Amino acid sequence: DAFNGVILWKRPMGNWLNQFRRFRAGPANLPFRLVADGDRLFVTMDFEGPVHMLDASTGKDLKIFAGTENTKQIIYSEGKLTLLRDDEVGQMEKIDGFRRRGEFMKHHCHLMRVDVETGKTQWQSDVDDLVFPCMAQKDGRIFAQTPKRVFALDYKTGKQDWTMDFTSVLPISGGKIKTGEMQWEAPTLVAGDGIVYAADFKKSRAYQAETGKLIWEGSSTNGYNAPADL
């Protein structure tokens, strides 16, 4: 209960990383997997599982969306879910190995739109690269970022509206802590009125939402194990 803190219901979670993780209880992007809409919750019940729709008052399953396994970000709007899926999301040991070498592992990601009432996938756009869990949605477009570019998809069709490459590949991290262990970071992407703002480990940029044209860029910084500030 939001007023007095009384627990109304609990649900057990499935597999959630492993016992050897050395920081916190899991990646800092886990909140992107939980979205509330009125009396419904949309959430993944384990790290590589599909999206569940729960009754917010009881915690019981109302629906499990087929084909949504490996979802790492959920956006809800007007009866539709925009999901970011990553085939390699559970391969944490391999991902950490690449990160320690200062590299991004090869990923196969999928942006998709799902009708909440029917459970049917309306479109899916495949990206053979790591897509960070920083999607934004505004004025009929979905905006996303990889280590190499920012791009926009048409919200209704999933077709690419524009893409803007970086002049250099995004660095794996803003820095390392004293032990040499790689920090966790993710870019921050915000869609405003006609402008898309993106801040990563080194630079912040502003783009025209309609065309992707770069308006300006400047320096950026990040917190420890947290998305970049914007």
From TrEMBL:
InterPro entries: Quinoprotein_ADH-like_sf, WD40/YVTN_repeat-like_dom_sf. Coiled coil: none annotated. This is PQQ-binding-like beta-propeller repeat protein. It comes from marine metagenome.
